[in-house]
Predict the structure of VOC domain-containing protein.
Amino acid sequence: MTTSVVSIVYVNDAPAAARFYGDLLGMSPSFETPGYITFDLGPGADLAVWSGQFEDLSADVPRTSEVCLAIDSGPDEVNAIFKQWQSKGVTILQEPHDAGFGLTFLAADPDGNRIRVAPQG
């Protein structure tokens, strides 16, 4: 039986991507190799950045999935995270808006992978 679900984000430079995600998440990696780095997000959930699968990813290539950071507080927290990420120079794809399930916004990592901040369902 599966003990953990790992969401893998394909990147060009795993250490650089790990620094980016570590800064956004406020945590350090739980496992590191030169091309594969994971973050323990809690029981049964990990986030990994991997540079061994695809080389020379372009931020211009459309992505079909997202990493969603589900927060357990309200719209004020979504707005606070949005402002914090803006001040760090994170690429914002959609500013905060109501998407029917609550206030959300969409950002991108340096490789063009999408990151959504949304309320926990």
In short: The beta strands are 5-10, 31-32, 36-42, 45-50, 66-71, 91-98, 103-108, 114-119.
